[in-house]
Structure formats: C-alpha cells, structure tokens
Amino acid sequence: MTTQEVKRKLTAILSADAKGYSRLMGEDEKGTVRTLNAYKEVMTDLIRHHRGRVVDAPGDNVLAEFGSVVDAVECAVEIQKELKTRNADLPENRKMEFRIGVNLGDVIEDGEQILGDGVNIAARLESLSEAGGICISGTGFDQVKNKLSVGYQYLGKQTVKNIPDPVRAYKVLMGPEAVGKVIGEKEPKETRWGWKAVAAAVVLALVAGGVVWNFYLRAPRIEPASKEKMAFPLPDKPSIAVLPFVNMSEDKEQEYFSDGMTEDLITDLSKISGLMVIARNSTFTYKGKPVKIKQVAEELGVRYVLEGSVRRAGNEIRINAQLVDALSGHHLWAERYDGRMDRIFALQDEITQKIVSALAVKLTGSEKQIIVQKGTNNVEAYDEFLRGWVHYLRMTPDDLAWAVHSFKRAIGLDPNYGRAYAALALAYGMGTVTPGWAKVLGGSWLETRLRVGQYLKQAMKNPTSIAHLVNADLHLYLRLHGEAVSEAERALALDPNDPACSSGMGFVLLNTGKTKEAIDFIDRAIRLDPHNPSRYLFLLGVAQFCMGNLEEAANLIEKARRINPEFTSSVPWLASIYGLLGREKEARAALETYKKEEWWWPFGELRLPEIMYFFPFKDRAVADRVAEGLIKAGVEGQPSGYFPAFKENQLTGEEIKRLNFGRTITGIGRDSHQWWYDKKKNGELTYRGGRPNLSDTGKTRIDGDMECQQFQNNLWGLEYCLTVFRNPRGTYEGKDEYFSCTDFGFYPFSVVR
User: Fold this and answer.
1) Which of 188, 290, 495, 553 is most exposed, with minimal Cβ within 10 Å?
2) Distance between CA atoms of 381 and 748, rounded to whole angstroms?
3) Beta carbons of 226 and 296 less than 8 angstroms apart
4) How far is CA 190 from CA 138, 187, 300, 311, in A?
C-alpha cells in the first residue's frame, strides 16, 4: 500500500456481518441462511437505489458508501420498512431485524476499504439502536433534521470508546405521528466537528429470533507496535493487557459494573499459568484516555490487547469485546455478548474461553476448574462484591468504609461467599496498617485488627488467593515463617499473574532471609504491574537493606515515597536507614513524621520493644540492624532491647500446653497494671486484673504451634491466636520470663510459682 492510495473521502457506510449467526439457529440453520441471503439482496438493491456503492468486505460483511448523510438515512429508513414487511410473513425463529447507526464524520478510503473514526462512531451508535430501529449522531441529525419525513428523540451524549468527546445520539422515529418532531431537545447543542467532518457512516447489526448476532464492523487498521520500542522484552508465552471496559450504560452509576467486569476478566485470565497478564493497577491508568493499542503494547510490553464496553439496563447486559494482536495490528476476534444478569457468569466464561482459544493456550486440569469458579451463584451478592471491590481499590478512608459495607451486604446475601470474606479481611487489614483508617471502620485499631482474623477464618473455608495472602501476612507477624511461605505459595498457585501474590511472596521471603529469591518475585511483580511502582520500589529498598547496601536502600525507598507520599509504612524504614548512615537530622525528621501519626499507634509510647513487632525478620542480624538504626533516630530503647521472637526461643504447641494449661500466668500491661490468666487443663480460661479491673471467662486451645484464645466479652468475644517465646533476659520479678506474639503485638508474662 502506498501513501497515495490512502485518502479522505465523503462517504456513508452501511455494514452488516452475519458471522456466527447460523450456529445459534440449530436445526433451522439452512432456512436461516436462506433468509439472510435474501435480506442481503434486498439491502444491496436498496443501497444502489439510493446512490450507494457496495464496498469490498471479508466474509459475510456488507459495506456500502453514500454521497450524503441524507441518502444514508433515507436508505436506512427504507431498509427497515421493507424488512418489517418481509418479517410479517415469517415464523418467529426466522425473522431478522437490523440495528442501524448513522454518523457524519471523517473516514479514510484505503483501496477498497473504508476506515476511521466515522466508522467507529457509527458502530457504537448501532448498539444504542433498538432491533428494527435507527440511531444517528448529532452531526448527522444537524444535516437531516428538516429534510426527511421522520421524527427524532434525543438520547443524550454517549461515551464512545477511543473517542475523546461524548457523541450526541438521536433515535429516528419512523411512525407518521412523529414526523417533524424532536423529542427531548429543542435545539441541539453546537458540535465542534463542523464542516470538516464530511462523511456519513451507517452500520447495521442483525437480530434473528430475538437474539442479537455477533456482527463485525470492519475495524480501522491499527498501527502495529514495535518489539524494539517495548519497555520490557516479550515473555516466552502469550502476554495480554485488558483495558478498562467502557461504561456505555445511560446510568453513569453503572461505572462500578464495567470496572468490575474488567477486574474479573483480569482475575480469571491471571489464574492461567500459560499467560502473562498485566495487572489492573497498570491497565486502569489508561481509563478514560484515548490511547492507541500501539502505545499500550509498547508501554506494558505485551503482544495482545483486549478492549471492550459494557451496557447494562436493569437486568439486560450487552458486552462488546475485541482482541487485537498489537504486533501485526490485526483483530483476532470481536464479539458481542447479550444476556441477562442471571447469565453474567456464563458470559464472562465465554469471553475467557474465547481468549484462551484465540491465543492457543493449554489449560491444566486445575485451571479449567479454577477459572469458572466465581465463589457464589448469587448474582446480587456478586453485584455487591463488585461495588465494594471498586471502592476498595480507590484506597481512601471513605471508600474503605463503603467497601466494607458492600462486602458485608454480599455476605448477607450469600453467607458462604468466601471471596467476600477474604475481601473483608483484606479491608480490615488495610485499616490497621494505614494511619487513622481504623476509625472509619467504626472501631479502635485493636478491634479492627481482631476483625481481620474473624473474617479470615470464614474466608479459609472457601479460600481464594486473597485469603491465602492475608493468612501469610498474619503467620509472618506471629513469626511462623515456614507457614507464611506455604500460604504465599498457595496464593501464587491460585493466581500466578497477580502481582500482589508475587510481591507478597517477596515480602515473606525477605523476612525469612531469602533475599535473592525475594528480589526475583519483586521483579516479577514489577513486570506484571509496571505502572504501579511504589510498593515494589519499597520492597527492593528493604532487600538492599537486608544485604547491607544502605545508600541504595535509602534511594529506592525515597523514590517510593516521592511516588506515593501517603505510603507511611516506609517512614520508620527511612528513620532507621538514615540513623545508620549518620544522617541524624533526616533520621529524626523521619521519626517525627511517624510520631505525628501517634494518635493511631496502638501501643502508647513509640518504644523499641513495641515497634519491632512490625519487623518480623527471621534473621536476627537484620532485625538488630533495624533496631540500631531506630535507636540512633531517637526511638526509646537499648540495642537488642526488644522481644527476641526468633526460632531458637520459640515453644512448640506441646510445650505451650505443658507450660500454660493447668497453671496461672501473670504479666504487667503497658498501663503498668498486673493481670492474671487462670488456665485449666481442659482449656477453660479466666482473666482478671488490668485496668479497669476486669474479669472474664473463655476457652483456649492448641492449634499447631499456636495457642488460640476466646473470651465471652473481652476483646469483643473474638478468637485470636498467639505464639509463645522464651525471653532469655526476662525475670520472674519483671513478669517477663516469656512473651506471647499475638495478632496485635507482644505481651510478656511469667508462670505463677
């Protein structure tokens, strides 16, 4: 193709594609084909009668161009009237109707093809039309409103994928009572396209027996991506990015649903080990932007890009999706899926299977099962989950509260919805690691932390990758490093393309002393989520700290903070690193920044024994290095003066039982008041003391190397688990010969003699 062969032209396009319709007709396939062919002949004759030209098109496509938008609309009206007459004599399963879209806009003629935004907009307008109806753009309406014997109804401005400005849309009213009327808008707003846009496009989509067939609009040629310009080398397996599906619903509040559909497609695809799938955090950076496939592919380092739209009206859903090979610029497929909300899971599975088939990916036996599991059969519960998940991902305090509200509603609708329980555990966990967020969830830091375990317990009955990740985190803070690694591995097995699983494994491995392996997983997370670097840079900084490279650690964590200043969890790390580097002023400034958030700190004074709970390193040398830096920054304490929660000091489950059961243990709380636990051999438990002077009863049990306790009233009646360690420096007088490591901190104690 030469440059001279590509030129702009004033034209109107009529397109219909019957690909895929016959398989839906079952036993009546031959009759349907005959009817379609007869209707195509009628269309061709009417196109020629209205001075249109049929354009070359592949397969079952019918494309035609017109000299004016008046001719195009006039032809569309006559087609609809003629086909309505012919349908009257046919049985229901043989009737065929067309949806028509008309647009006045720029198109490109490339040999026998017609391309451009004018065609794209017409295709989107077609999806707005009713079966047997016509929908036209504002630019087309401006030219024909007083020239034809029809009426119009204003449908408002419609968002069109890859078109920066909304498009005015009008329904053509063909009844004699509507002639000359414009319903809904007296004076259409002035369009910015003007007379430079001098082409019209008409797109027809076939409907037979009430089912919308999948018609392909001849897509504009896409500029191929360059392998050499890609930010990352292509992997040795198919790589794909799923762009946010456009909300085409009239109700803009349905945005959560189109986002949720995109999320779920990414989630389903990411479970397939034979694919590399870019994470939602990176693909959603393109949301609402008129980006090109070439740009997306090169910036994310992928070969394939999926894009689409979702329209929801009550229980009716329409999903349009197309898969593009960015290296060739060709469409692998484009489909339209129509159905009701009660078929939403089936529609999602169809799209996933279509992608898997198009990319020739082989699924393992377990993957075939995993990708069809939605966690619930209750569509209302699923809808509530989507609402909540979109709020959760916005990462603001108010959105966190809304997310929790929706997740709880989802559980109310389906008490066995493991994914919703896991999301609740994750949300409450977020409320304990982000300063002040516990308050928006209606409780203290301590209660919020306990709720994590409560919801996780339910989530683990039907575990998801999220549940395993949260469980890995809790085991890590209990210093059960082996169990934490196992849980992170289970998460990765369920969702190998989720960067949270890769970075979660990296975080666990950093704390278990396997730094080089951890870096591999962190790098993998970056590859899957290149537009969301803050957390990964922070983890790489921690890795450099573990290896003793303090300057590099400081540079990486500083960069992470610049990208995301609200990432407060990185501040104590900077305080420690600056202290070790002798940058005393910066170290104290970092510590003061952290102390400003002290109102959320659950342990009173910011002292070393308490703050080291949040540094669960298996390697004592690394933990000592953190502690030394914090003391130099100004944290109260002595070098190594923290609870030594290391393997050599840990008690097994059997040792905990021999030490505690049938005994009374006592300790001094952070408020300097003494407390007692009376533990019977059968697990019955009595608590007394503390401030205010409390008493309560409960039960305790051994679970592996943990002791799990639950009171009637204290700590909201929620069960929590703990590990137990010897404290080599402790004394009976100090009531700290041992200490427990709970879900929410360290607690020293001694056995009453």
Assistant:
1) 290
2) 44
3) no
4) 9, 9, 39, 27
| The domain over range 380-633 is classified in CATH as 1.25.40.10 | yes
Which tokens go with 741? 């490591």
- Which segment of 385-389, 566-570, 672-676, 722-726 scores lowest on mean pLDDT? 566-570
| 3-state SS, residue 714 | helix
One-letter amino acid for residue 128 of the chain: L
Phi, psi of 53 (to 5 degrees): -125, 125
Neighbours of 512 (CB within 10 A): 20
- Strands (DSSP E) contained in 113-267 are 113-115, 134-137, 151-158, 167-173, 182-183, 200-208, 211-212, 239-242, 246-247
DSSP tag of 406:
H
Q: Name the strand (E) or helix (H) holding 139.
A: helix 138-144
In sequence order, the 6+-apart residues with CB closer than 8 A to the CB of 427 are: 392, 400, 403, 404, 407, 441
Q: Which CATH superfamily is domain 3-212 in?
A: Nucleotide cyclase, GGDEF domain (3.30.70.1230)
User: Is residue 35 a contact partner of residue 137, using CB atoms and an 8 Å limit?
Assistant: no
DSSP state of 636: B
DSSP string covering 233-293, please?
A: PPPSS-EEEEPPPEE-SS-GGGHHHHHHHHHHHHHHHHT-TT-EE--HHHHGGGTTS---H
H-only helix segments in 275-414: 280-283, 293-300, 344-358, 365-370, 379-394, 397-413
Instruction: Pick the closest to residue 194 from 105, 108, 101 (CA basis).
Output: 105
> In the chain, where does the domain assigned CATH 2.40.128 lie?
647-751
CATH 1.25.40.10 region(s) of the chain?
380-633
Find the helix or strand (DSSP H, E) in which 41 lies. helix 29-49
Tell me which of 711 and 345 has the higher pLDDT.
711
**What CATH number should be reported for the domain whose range is 227-375?**
3.40.50.10610
Q: In the prediction, which pLDDT does 457 show?
A: 94
Taking only the tens place, the pLDDT of each residue in 41-89 is: 777 777 777 777 776 554 445 666 777 778 888 888 888 888 888 777 7
Query: Could you tell me whether strands 151-158 and 182-183 are parallel, antiparallel, or unpaired per DSSP bridges?
Result: parallel
What is the pTM assigned to this prediction?
0.69
Contacts of 161 (CB under 8 A, 6+ apart): 120, 124, 246, 307, 308, 309
* DSSP element (H, E) containing 622: helix 620-633
Give the chain's end-to-end CA distance (angstroms, integer): 93
- Helices 499-511 and 465-477: crossing angle in degrees, nearest 10, is 20
